[in-house]
Write a structure and sequence with these properties.
The chain is of the alpha+beta class. About 40% of the residues lie in helices and about 20% in strands. It has a 4-stranded mixed beta sheet with strand order 1-3-4-2. α1 crosses α3.
Length: about 170
């Protein structure tokens, strides 16, 4: 039997854990099931998320804000929302089922003290979506907010159009 050996960085492990939670029902905790993905999760999501995390932390470093770390629960919330937006082909902070940022985060059982969310549609790369968010005062404020310590990243394609979600939080 051939075994594939992977060397993952801590942020990669968090993202892989979150993607497994999204794709395997019941993986994120008792009584909580992940919906079947309406949009296929691309294998490149791990690389895209790592690149976006690095870009965000580079901007945070410029303003002396502490770096964010990836969190599996927040990534689950972000990924589910990106998939929902891609499946419904609409950009919104409200899910097609009426879910809100708060309800999506709470569904992962993440215990938070403060939260924020950025969404985007259409930018083909992590660098392009980062530039769009940095040029928007509200999105920029979320990314540079020193109160946030953790990040979840979601990315999905629907009808050939990329949908992005960032979920920011500080745990209790």
């Amino acid at each position: 039997m051939n075994l594939l050996k992977l060397r993952l960085r801590p942020q990669s492990i968090a993202l892989v854990t979150a993607l497994v939670a999204v794709m395997l029902p019941g993986a994120i905790g008792p009584g909580v099931t992940a919906p079947a993905p309406a949009v296929a999760v691309a294998p490149a999501n791990l690389a895209v998320a790592e690149e976006l995390l690095q870009l965000v932390n580079a901007e945070r470093q410029r303003v002396n804000a502490p770096p964010l770390t990836l969190n599996a629960q927040l990534t689950t919330a972000a990924q589910r929302h990106s998939e929902d937006m891609a499946a419904s082909r609409r950009l919104s902070h409200t899910g097609s089922d009426g879910s809100t940022m708060r309800s999506r985060i709470d569904a992962t059982q993440y215990q938070w003290s403060t939260i924020g969310e950025n969404v985007a549609m259409g930018q083909p790369t992590a660098a392009a979506v980062m530039a769009a968010w940095m040029n928007s005062p509200g999105h920029r404020q979320n990314m540079l907010n020193p109160a946030f310590t953790e990040l979840g990243i979601g990315y999905a394609n629907g009808a050939g159009r990329p949908y992005w979600t960032q979920v920011f939080a500080r745990p209790r």
